[in-house]
Write a structure and sequence with these properties.
By secondary structure, the chain is an alpha/beta fold. Helix content is about 45%, strand content about 15%. The chain has 2 domains: about 180 residues, 3-Layer(aba) Sandwich (Rossmann fold); about 120 residues, CBS-domain, CATH 3.10.580.10. Helix 2 packs across helix 7.
Length: about 325
């Protein structure tokens, strides 16, 4: 190995070891945070769950960046939230914080000077205040209604100065608040999709009921119908199949283009649908994810699925083209 290559190898090994040291330090911090969680976390969740208006999240510097992310996560999981910069709050943005809000303030030391006016505002107007800090006797911890204490663990920075372990714990604790809160509220896939309608994530959360064809667009004929009429319905509805229902409107069979080819004869048009249909067709729940329906169609090599209720009564039909047009593939 040449001297240059040996030097690069040593440098790479040093870099990787530094990365592992940082990750181990931050993981240890998170483990300590897990062990030290107490009733204050549940108390914070109660305040957040009972908020009448919004959760105001604030922090300065690196804590401020984490606060922005926590506010965004809360908002995307069904809790109205807003980041307010503490310095801007002192110059008019205190007006964004109302009496029906809850404030979540982040500061590792708990004595961040820029937060002073927000703390005073919450105390003056009796606005609930949740602190996230490692400063057990700090101004922030003392003023707060609920204090989420971060354990005193070393920063991953070798100088012990740059916020690393502390901000990782803040970020993880913010995620824990958001997830515990959405679980308490019973936040569903449908609720999540309502807040994420765009892009790939929005498409992944679409349900069958969002895409299926309903009403007159559903190809159905009653049992006993002659094939001549059934084929006419297939042609009109343009999904390549027709469902057969009994007297209680329960789906008992399906006729596809393939069934027509297999039963081609001079008597086909006069035959009853029961002579041609495939019984016990595969169906799907209307509130199943559209991705699940597409996966089922691909696995069974079919192009349509009837969406039925608990009584197997058809509520709609989903064609594979409906998925593709929406970008689900």
């Amino acid at each position: 190995m040449t001297e240059a290559r040996q030097s690069r190898a040593l440098t790479a090994a040093t870099d990787i070891e530094a990365a592992r040291r940082v990750l181990r330090t931050e993981i240890d911090g998170l483990k300590t945070l897990i062990d030290e969680l107490d009733e204050s976390f549940s108390a914070a969740i109660r305040l957040l769950a009972d908020v009448e208006d919004r959760v105001i999240v604030s922090g300065m510097g690196k804590s401020g960046h984490i606060a922005r992310k926590i506010a965004a996560t809360l908002a995307s999981t069904g809790t109205a939230a807003l980041f307010v910069h503490p310095a801007e709050a002192s110059h008019g943005d205190l007006g964004m914080i109302g009496s029906r809000d809850v404030v979540l303030a982040l500061s590792n030391s708990g004595d961040t000077e820029e937060l002073t006016d927000i703390l005073a505002h919450t105390r003056r107007f009796r606005i609930p205040l949740i602190a996230m800090t490692s400063g057990t006797t700090s101004t922030l911890a003392t003023a707060a209604d609920v204090t989420l204490l971060l354990p005193a663990v070393p920063e991953a920075c070798p100088m012990g100065l740059s916020p690393t372990s502390s901000t990782t714990m803040m970020l993880a604790l913010g995620d824990a608040l958001a997830v515990a809160l959405l679980e308490r509220k019973g936040f569903s896939h449908r609720d999540y999709h309502a807040l994420h309608p765009g892009g790939k994530l929005g498409r992944k959360l679409l349900e069958v009921t969002d895409l299926m064809r309903c009403g007159d667009a559903v190809p159905l004929v009653p049992a006993g119908t002659r094939m001549a009429e059934a084929i006419l319905v297939m042609t009109q509805k343009s999904v390549g199949c027709v469902g057969v229902v009994d007297g209680r409107r329960r789906l008992i069979g399906i006729i596809t283009d393939g069934d027509l080819r297999r039963h081609m004869s001079d008597d086909l048009l006069r035959s009853p649908v029961e002579a041609v249909m495939s019984g016990h067709p595969r169906t799907i729940r209307p509130h199943a994810l559209a991705f699940e329906a597409l996966g089922l169609m691909n696995a069974l090599t079919i192009t349509s699925l009837f969406a039925v209720d608990d009584e197997r009564q058809p509520l709609g039909i989903l064609h594979i083209h409906d998925c593709l047009r929406t970008g689900i593939a």
